[in-house]
Amino acid sequence: MDEQYYYSPSTGQTYSPYQMLALFGIDVSTWSLPIINLKGFYPVVATSPDFDVRLYNPTSVWDIVPVTGGEGAELTWTAVPKPLPEAKANGSAEAKATANAELDRSVCDCGYSTDLLTAVSSQDPVDRPARFQAELDEMIAISNQLASDLTAIDTATSVDEINNIVNKPTGILFTGRGGGLGPQDLNVSYYTEFNSVSMTEAETELFVPGTSTVIAYGSGGAGKFDSFGDCFNPGDYLLQIRETATSMVIAEIVVPLNAAGENVAFGHGSGAY
């Protein structure tokens, strides 16, 4: 178990239990937290930046916060954009790593080796066995997305733009079908969770690829999406969440048949940077 440290606002320093006893005569193993607080010390609550430190430099300030039995101290982090050339280099490396991981996952899932699929891809399409085409199509889609992302990173004018590309928002969309005119009609939908350092909900739209239907943010009222009628082709219920300004696809979901609506998660999760 990690050792508990204590923060002093008066000195701006943290102290181990040994230092608390040696320097201040405070035995944290026997003293109650309220008494420790009265002496001006607060147990440190561990926090870390919730943004990509390869794109942003973290700065922090101490805040006193409630904890069980008294008060503690935690660092509140702020993201400061790195110089644009450095962010572009790091963002490009991240995009390549993500694409490589997706290719590895695709190959692992299908059971074919990368060498085999590479050999098959060199064949004339006329002579290529059809059984490999789905895997090749997925590899091409990943490669095309990487090319698009790298171009967007190269032409980005801010670190936030780069972050939008390599760390797409995650969250939950409350959505469904069948609550209006029938199973081809998208219910009024809205975010119940939206996580992004550099993009807001209002900067997004919904898009139905099957019918090329754009559903604007706010079309269903404040913070809501409304298709105002049928927007899906029967049997094709793919829905994209996109950045409005660039049409960049943030995530794809399949809208469930549920007249009452339900929460559908999107994105890959934030993970640890």
Entry keywords:
273 residues, alpha+beta, 5-stranded mixed β-sheet, 4-stranded antiparallel β-sheet
What is the element layout, followed by pairings?
Layout: E1 6-8, E2 13-15, H1 17-24, H2 33-38, E3 42-45, E4 56-67, E5 70-81, H3 84-110, H4 114-121, H5 133-155, H6 159-166, E6 170-175, E7 189-195, E8 204-208, E9 213-216, E10 224-225, E11 238-243, E12 249-254, E13 262-266
Parallel strand pairs: 3-5
Antiparallel strand pairs: 1-2, 1-3, 4-5, 6-7, 6-13, 7-10, 8-9, 8-11, 11-12
Fold and architecture overview:
- The chain is built from 6 helices and 13 strands.
- It has 273 residues and is α+β, with helices and mostly antiparallel strands.
- It folds into 3 domains: 6-81, no CATH class; 82-167; 168-273.
- It has a 5-stranded mixed sheet with strand order 2-1-3-5-4.
- Strand 8 (204-208) and strand 9 form a beta hairpin.
- Helix 3 runs antiparallel to helix 5 and helix 3 runs parallel beside helix 6 (159-166).
- The longest helix has 27 residues, at 84-110.
- The chain is extended and about 80 Å long.
- The model is unreliable at 269-273 (pLDDT under 50).
